[in-house]
UniProtKB/TrEMBL annotation:
This is RNA-binding protein Luc7-like 2. It comes from Knipowitschia caucasica (Caucasian dwarf goby). One of its GO terms (biological process) is mRNA splice site recognition. InterPro entries: Luc7-rel. Belongs to the Luc7 family.
Length: 335
């Protein structure tokens, strides 16, 4: 990208579509279905994996930094739920990646020589130490590039200790199988990006993998997915509280559910008519474990049942009255 193009992109990101009065450009809004909502939230896999061996190419929807700026400005004044669309987009992508990982594991099982569970556990230990070394080296290189020399040196010291542990694990693994079999490259599938890792990969190969754009890109995608899920949950809760404060209906529904639960606890074989109590708003049928009470039960039968369980009925009626009395002041206050 030329310096001029970079400058235009920076202005778009800062000022949005209206930065130079271009009315043609303003015809498409960030709310348009043609606009990639994942891009607005800086979480589109097409952007994150660009330039890797799993480059997805150009996204089918519109990507524009100016539209992202428009969204960020508007989001300060109004709530949008684009996180839900973006989360679904990323979840679908992660599901595809996980399926590829499982398929790769099955191919390894079919192609590699079968080994005992004990030997497999020893090989797994070598793989784990390989992974730890690769991650430490990648992180040390990153810190060194940022100028954090002391922290990078500390990580390199950990790498040396881990190499000693790896050498011991390799010796244990080597002694558990024939020399010819040990020389065969045992592969493992990376759980993050589904790439193949070798048991005998050197440190440089491991550092290139764990510090590579592809592996880090998949980590970023998974982290962004978790953030989007959290944002969706928080916005849903915020919306629920807002609606509850505006209408107050949720409070009545919660009370109804609580009363129903407490009435079921005493197992009263009786039917309460909704017209007799405005809190319930519907007929509530409560029966014993061995009874099936018909909702069309006649009045005489009701009186018979009440007489046999009068004390339980009085306790329940008193409980309902207390709940109703506690709610009435809240209703008058809201009015």
């Amino acid at each position: 990208m030329s310096a001029h193009a970079q400058m235009r992109a920076m202005l778009d990101q800062l000022m949005g579509t209206g930065r130079d009065g271009d009315t043609m450009r303003q015809r498409i809004k960030f709310t348009d279905d043609r606009v990639c909502k994942s891009h607005l939230l800086d979480s589109c896999p097409h952007d994150i994996l660009s330039g890797t061996r799993m480059d997805l190419g150009e996204c089918m929807k519109v990507h524009d930094l100016a539209l992202r700026a428009d969204y960020e400005i508007a989001a300060k004044k109004e709530e949008y739920f684009f996180e839900l669309d973006a989360a679904e987009h990323l979840q679908s992508f992660i599901n595809d990646c996980d399926r590829r990982t499982e398929m790769a594991k099955k191919r390894l099982v079919e192609t590699q020589d079968e080994i005992s569970a004990e030997v497999a556990a020893k090989a797994e230990r070598v793989h784990e130490l390989n992974e730890e070394i690769g991650k430490l080296l990648a992180r040390a290189e990153q810190l060194g590039g940022e100028g954090n020399v002391d922290e990078a040196q500390q990580l390199l010291e950990k790498v040396e200790k881990t190499r000693i542990s790896k050498k011991e694990a390799e010796d244990v693994y080597r002694n558990s199988m024939p020399a010819s079999s040990f020389q065969q490259q045992k592969l493992r599938v990376c759980e993050v990006c589904s790439a193949y890792l070798g048991l005998h990969d050197n440190d440089r190969r491991l550092a290139d993998h764990f510090g590579g754009k592809l592996h880090l890109g998949f980590i970023e995608i998974r982290e962004k997915l978790e953030k989007l899920r959290k944002a969706v949950t928080e916005k849903q809760e915020k919306l629920r509280v807002k609606r509850q404060n505006e209408s107050g209906s949720d409070g009545d529904q919660d009370l109804e559910a609580e009363i129903g639960t407490e009435m079921e606890a005493v197992h009263l074989p009786i039917i309460l008519d909704a017209t007799a109590h405005p809190v319930l708003g519907k007929k509530v049928e409560i029966g014993t474990e061995n009874e099936d009470i018909d909702t069309r039960i006649d009045t005489a039968h009701i009186h018979t049942l009440i007489s046999t369980r009068e004390r339980d009925l009085q306790e329940t009626a008193h409980l309902i009255q207390e709940k109703w009395s506690a709610l009435c002041p809240k209703r008058r206050t809201k009015k």
